[in-house]
Amino acid sequence: MYPTLSKSLPLSLLALASVSLADDNAESVSTLSFKNAFVNSGIVPEVIPALDPAVSFYATYKTEGDSNHSELLIPGSSLTVNEISTLPIEFSVENLSNATNITAQTRYLIYLLDADAPARSNPTARNLRHWLAGNFTLNGQNSSVLSTAQRLARPPNSGAPFTNFTAPRPDANSGVHRYIMALYTQPARFNTAGFESVGMEREVANWNLSRWRTQLGLGPAIGATYFVIDTGANGGNGTSAPQGLNNQGGNGGNNNNNAGGQGGNNNDTSAAADIRASSVYVVGLTALAAVFGGLIMV
Ligand SMILES: *[C@@H]1O[C@H](CO)[C@@H](O)[C@H](O)[C@H]1NC(C)=O
Ligand SMILES: *[C@@H]1O[C@H](CO)[C@@H](O)[C@H](O)[C@H]1NC(C)=O
Ligand SMILES: *[C@@H]1O[C@H](CO)[C@@H](O)[C@H](O)[C@H]1NC(C)=O
Ligand SMILES: *[C@@H]1O[C@H](CO)[C@@H](O)[C@H](O)[C@H]1NC(C)=O
Ligand SMILES: *[C@@H]1O[C@H](CO)[C@@H](O)[C@H](O)[C@H]1NC(C)=O
Ligand SMILES: *[C@@H]1O[C@H](CO)[C@@H](O)[C@H](O)[C@H]1NC(C)=O
Ligand SMILES: *[C@@H]1O[C@H](CO)[C@@H](O)[C@H](O)[C@H]1NC(C)=O
Ligand SMILES: *[C@@H]1O[C@H](CO)[C@@H](O)[C@H](O)[C@H]1NC(C)=O
Ligand SMILES: *[C@@H]1O[C@H](CO)[C@@H](O)[C@H](O)[C@H]1NC(C)=O
Ligand SMILES: CC(=O)N[C@H]1CO[C@H](CO)[C@@H](O)[C@@H]1O
């Protein structure tokens, strides 16, 4: 276990953090805690057979109600639909040196999927891909909310994401959805060619991760995290507390975002749940352009 940042950061840094309205509770999460959170949440083995993360993988998002407040996303963080209406504002990693075969030039790919689409009790679209993009590299900066974490970003001219971001909008009363984001090292061939070059299909529903890894020649994820959106009751899992880091003590303070209430205006029951309305899609693309611009410029 690492010392909490609130205990180890000099006061001057804490002051700086609050001026910029960053997450002043952010603290490192050990790779073991990531691993345990994936087991406690049922993601392992329900969705993926195993997770043995080499690195701690984080995202940063803007909390609702205070659009200037950046929060570190840790395993089990509970988000509202609005808080993930755009991509996270940044991705970052700790202990990258613990991953094998990493150089300064290594590129990475990241996805976002819904393991519980269209509903937790009946996830017939599992896994539903919301986003997939390659060509991430270290951009030489550290996270705006966790100073020990190195930022990953897509440089200009990285090409479009293979799957453009579509904002999660799970149906009301479809249970607690687990959204997984995972980080892989990118095989060198994809530095100059997209994933379609090895036959990957655009279809986003029923994405088979093990088949995909074989197709792309990927090793296991070097890091992964997840957040939940609680849409209300569904087969007994809708109202249960998300089983993330909260249940291991010590980290509950990071997960202070309101669950519930979100998704109530979304009553589409089609199987392709989160990607259906073209208006939603357009919003997603617009959001992508905005966030993507941000990633490039910083
Ligand atoms: C390093 O990675 C291995 C898995 O590759 C993991 O078991 C171990 O806990 C990691 N160590 C640290 C300090 O993150
Ligand atoms: C919050 O951000 C918005 C634009 O993103 C800006 O207009 C506003 O001044 C900021 N508020 C504070 C308190 O920094
Ligand atoms: C509730 O979640 C647990 C763990 O994710 C799973 O094993 C169980 O089958 C779920 N129950 C229902 C009714 O969906
Ligand atoms: C950025 O993160 C790296 C890796 O943890 C660390 O060595 C470096 O000191 C950090 N830089 C700053 C300015 O905090
Ligand atoms: C993703 O968005 C970009 C930019 O809007 C667009 O050029 C590209 O065609 C989109 N990709 C797919 C697969 O729709
Ligand atoms: C290490 O990475 C390089 C460049 O991506 C690749 O060519 C090589 O096969 C990798 N080696 C191993 C053992 O994974
Ligand atoms: C990475 O970027 C190059 C252009 O620099 C592009 O040709 C390639 O398709 C991209 N790879 C992925 C996986 O997006
Ligand atoms: C995913 O693909 C693998 C390998 O092709 C296959 O063995 C497995 O049954 C598939 N899983 C599902 C849920 O279709
Ligand atoms: C969703 O639609 C069904 C059937 O049209 C209706 O009974 C239900 O009240 C609606 N739920 C919400 C949350 O609007
Ligand atoms: C083994 C190792 O590198 N551990 C480091 C992981 O990252 C944290 C935060 O940067 C360090 O405190 C550990 O020493």
Automatic annotation (TrEMBL):
It holds the Pfam family PBP. SUPFAM superfamilies: PEBP-like. CDD domains: PEBP_euk. Keywords: Signal. The keyword Glycosyltransferase does not apply. Residues 1-22 form the signal peptide. InterPro entries: PEBP, PEBP-like_sf, PEBP_euk. Residues 238-267 are annotated as: Disordered. PANTHER family: PEBP-LIKE PROTEIN, PHOSPHATIDYLETHANOLAMINE-BINDING PROTEIN. This is Phosphatidylethanolamine-binding protein. It comes from Cercophora samala.
